[in-house]
Amino acid sequence: MAINGNTLISSNLGDSGFLIMRGGEIVFQTTQQQHSFNFPYQIGSPDSMSDMPDAADRGSFEVQPGDIIVLGTDGLWDNCFPEEITSVINYCQQGGMDAVKSSQVMAHYARHRAADTKYASPFAYSAFQSGLAYLGGKMDDITVLVAYVQQASKL
User: Fold this and answer.
1) For residue 70, what are the CA distances in angstroms to 94, 115, 121, 147, 154?
2) Left (φ > 0), alpha (ψ -120 to 50) or beta: where does 23 sit?
3) Model's pTM, two decimal places?
């Protein structure tokens, strides 16, 4: 991911992803790439069942000052619905938290959801859609990065 002027350029492969918020609402979100349930695209060694980098979804999106970008590994998306993510990030922003603290709060929230065995998580919903019985969050790596888009300063 890079920002050139007001254009965010991205290349995303697998079940990590990002969303862009504007005015407290989601205006863009990547979609997960999976071969089948819980079998995401991923880059690996040539002798493994892996995907090539050219399988990545590439795109661009115009951003503006005030936008918030939330990037996360599958541990975020498997345990938090987009509406929960926007609620947590809006709470952080209204509380005056910087991007680092917002990232920490969001990751902690996702970790809490992952440990909840009675939660109808996004992962559980996907399992159900695939004909599997599953309830609860999914313990997994959880990495979250929050970025606040600001006007470029002149040097």
Assistant:
1) 16, 22, 19, 7, 26
2) left
3) 0.94
Q: With a cut of 90, say whether residue 152 has pLDDT above it.
A: no
Round to whole Å and give the CA distance between 44 and 23: 38
Q: Which of 57, 61, 40, 58 is nearest to 49 (CA)?
A: 40
Q: Read off the tokens for 3.
A: 């920002």
Which residue is associated with the tokens 């995907």?
A: 51
Q: What is the mean pLDDT of residues 9-20?
A: 97
pLDDT of 46 higher than 90 = no
In sequence order, what DSSP letters do the residues of the chain get, joined into one string? -EEETTEEEEEE-TT-EEEEEETTEEEEE----EEETTEE-----TTSS---GGGSEEEEEE--TT-EEEEE-HHHHTT--HHHHHHHHHHHHHTT--HHHHHHHHHHHHHHHHT-TT---HHHHHHHHTT----S-------EEEEE--PPPP-
- For the beta carbon of residue 96, count every other beta carbon within 10 angstroms: 7
pLDDT at residue number 155: 53
Other CB atoms within a 10 A radius of the CB of residue 83 amount to 9
